[in-house]
Amino acid sequence: MTVGTMAVVLPDYPVPPVTGYHLRMLSNLAVSQALGWRTSVLWFGEHAGRNVTQAIPHANEVCRVAARLGPRPLPTRVIQRGRWLAGALAHRHMSSYPFSLPYEGGRKAVIQTVGEMADAVLLPTTLCHWAPVLRSTGALVIGDAVDVNSDLALRLLRSESKGNPLRAAGLAVNYLACRAQEQGFLRELDEVWATSPGEAHRARQLGARRVVVVPSTFKQWDLAPTERPDVPIVGFVGNFKMPPNLKAARFLVDQVLPRLQRSVPNVVLRLAGDGLPEDILVRPGLEIYGPVDDASEFVASCAISALPIRVRGGVPLKLIEAMALGRPIVATPELVAGLPITPGEDMLVVTDADAFADAIIRLITQPQLATRLATHARATFESEFSLDAAIARARSESIAV
Q1: Contact 211, 192 (CB under 8 A)
Q2: pLDDT by residue (tens digit) across 346-376?
Q3: Is the pTM of this model over 0.85?
Q4: Domains of the chain by range and CATH?
Q5: Number of C-alpha atoms within 13 angstroms, CB side, residue 128?
Q6: Coil vs helix vs strand at 337
Q7: Fewer C-beta neighbours within 10 Å, C or N terminus of the chain?
Q8: 241 confidence band (pLDDT: 50, 70, 90)
């Protein structure tokens, strides 16, 4: 087993964790400890205290390294992004990221801390431009959750910029910045931990020298399948401030629900999450929850998980959570692309509103099909997405062993 300290960088860690990215980092802490590392979290945030340490399991220690500074003035932000755009177009390697939040000595504090006490460091790949100087300290540098940000940025550019030139310009700069950063610095990492085979393939295409698939798990290692409710409740949970989630919610409410109600009058569509706009009104068959403290409880309260996501970043934890809980799932091809999931065996994968409604109706009216899919999805979760699977993959393939 490895003996040493693994420093895990957590920019803007919320307490409690609420995003898939931060939950992903928690699972990586568990994997790192299982590999034999002492884990030291280098945390960026506004405050430090016991509540932060308690909210980060599998950390031997939590070190607050920097506080966020106030927002940069608009002219400074414009100049910074303009320089990045020029650098990206000229294929120059940049030493920063144009949308990074400013911290009080952030990078300097991390470099100093890693040099003093860490044998390895696990970075989010949005900070992979730190890799060259961190490697100079002698530490092993691993980039985590590559997510292929340039691919995500390009998909957002194509889907969110229509009719809005200013938004299109901002998204275009974001895409070019992500592309330049990945092409320039992924190869500087000693290893990349990707979240899926598809992302691992793209990371290699972008120049990563060594890639290991370490699936996201977070608290799923504690989840067990639960009995499905008898009422035909179709659920979707997400942060509706994210355009792909909001579009999915509107798709379910405006296009899928009316089709369902024609065949299954007592069907219920249940939405949960922050940021749902007021123009999505409660109506017969629609239940709207605000933010929920425990997404797994919400998923367990539904008979079917409907996930019509068209633009995905990373591995969608709402999908993995539904698999772990043994819920039959209807998803889009975009959501499962590149994942070790078999359509028709693990879940139903469809495209348009008619097909989506028909698939949900099949699951409602054919309980044996729903049970078969849910059982197979749980088995796939255990073999591909569980904590045990992540540890086994890292132990057999990572240079961090």
Answers
A1: yes
A2: 999 999 999 999 999 999 999 999 999 999 9
A3: no
A4: 5-217+388-397 (3.40.50.2000), 221-385 (3.40.50.2000)
A5: 31
A6: coil
A7: N
A8: confident
